Amino acid sequence: MLPFILKRLGLALLVAFTVSFISFLLLFLSGDPAAALAGETASGEDIEAIRRVYGFDRPMLVQYGEWLVSALQGDFGESYYFKLPVAGLIAERLQVTMILGVCGISFALLTAVPLGVAAAIRPNSIVDRVALFMSVAGQAMPSFWFGLILIVVFAIQLGMLPPSGAETWRHFILPTVVLGYYAMPAIMRLTRAGMLDTLNSDYIRTARAKGAGEGRVLFKHALRNAIIPVVSLAAVQMGFMLGGSIVVESVFALHGAGYLAWESIARNDLPTVQALILVFSMFYIVFTFLADVLNAWLDPRMRSA
Amino acid sequence: MTDDTLLEVRNLTLDIPTGAGTLHAVRGIDFELRRGETLSIVGESGSGKSLTSLAVMGLLGKGIRRDADVMRFEDTDLLTASRRRMRALRGDRIAMIFQEPMTSLNPAYTIGDQLIETLKLHRRVSTSAARARAVELLEKVGITAAASRLGQYPHQLSGGLRQRVMIALALMCEPDLLIADEPTTALDVTIQAQILRLLVDLTREMDMAMILITHDLGVVARVADKVAVMYAGELVETGPAAAVFERPSHPYTRGLLRCIPQPGKTDRGSQLGTIPGIVPSLVGEVTGCAFRTRCPHAVPECRAAIPVRGDAAHDFRCVHADGAISAEKETA
Lengths: 305, 332
Fold this sequence. Notes:
Chain A has helices at 2-29, 33-38, 44-54, 60-72, 86-121, 126-140, 143-157, 173-199, 202-209, 214-226, 228-244, 246-251, 257-266, 270-298. With 305 residues, chain A is mostly helical.
């Protein structure tokens, strides 16, 4: 198990390094950053001055090395728009996003996995049909629309929950449901398919022949094998939620990292965009790594891979 | 039913509802098994042998209807036993091994975990005692370095080793009855003989009864005390192995025997027999002898009810009083 973890860790670091280079290059993809900073009315001299002040006149690799070293120390430079250190800005916004992301994926897993298992135990039963209906509805409904409906019903009509903001835990309930419901269908369908497949396997028959009870058969013998693809999917969805819940954050006026990314792109605030891309990518890398380790723990055949 | 009868099955019927009608998969099967005895159920694929064994285990799939006059294991009526009682029997008094050793062990757990689990499901034992028992059984089934195997996973073992592990798993609680469903079919020929030898030795050593399900008559000849030949869901002939091989009475049994080479009887270079035709559909009402569509001695009477002939020890079902042996000799 340990050699596997070290190997995956090495791979993850390699990917992280590559991603950092790409996200640095993004700065230059949108054209001359000095010109963009100076604005449309600036003269050639102004642009040159800005180029020198920000160091854009030096070789690109030198700039990258400098940026990487300070990034590793937590210094992502200063936001062009807020005139504040990017690191502090992101850390502050990330808090909201992380709470929302963790709640969202938990909500998705806690509803989807039991529902998927129940549907697989009795295929074509009423439970299975309800689960299918819920997953189709979840997949078909856009998040912003579902969010607005929840606000209308629970915040405005019933007055049970606040419609927007991030002050108390109650503010997070509706966004969690919307975000979680978005991720639920895929997890549910994958759990159901995995369980159906596993329950028909020979080793489940062996477990029953041993005299194991249904609970043990389902949860010890079947679920562990059925859940493996779900782990990989949940990791990707988790990365997505921590990076890009822009729609949900906008609908509920939760000013998280996704919202910050959207604002910064609109304002051409390149250091912020760069840092956010790097942070979001790191989330994906970390969760993929964790999913690989978890899967290797679940299925010993993967440890040699 | 005598005192040492372990398993008694009378008039077992299994029906499977399908879209096209009811599939009468097993019809009116009788057999009994005494302690320490080996019964071999022989028949081709789809003859209902595996379903019969799963019916004894109480592991039939959903929707399969089971009906019988008697189905008794020791003092337990298997027809009325609660799920709890069946669970207690399975893996403890009745154990089963399957055809596919490659997929019959859970890939996520070590060999040791799976062996220990079986014992702990049925006995109050410490993990270390269960471990010791697991090592003992792995050694008994001929696995070397048994203690170090406990930490291995199924994918690290070959098919032959996995089948040995399956046998060890089945024997953890010293069952009275072992059901082996085609235990050697998926293995290499050289391994087949070893596994079969092992099963025979273990049943003798542990005074265990065995139901050996197979399509290979060669296997039966070496192992079984009693033989039950199944065709399309019915028993066509049952009897002591020696008697059935000596005087195969049903035309189907003789057909099967002609399909395998027999030392001293089959001439070198001669062609082995085949049974032409295919197994009839068992959907809808099934009457008369199911083998009549492939039988060279079929007569119109085969459509009607078929009498049981022979004696209590060795019986067969055929309209011909002698199972058409005389007719066969004339044509030969």
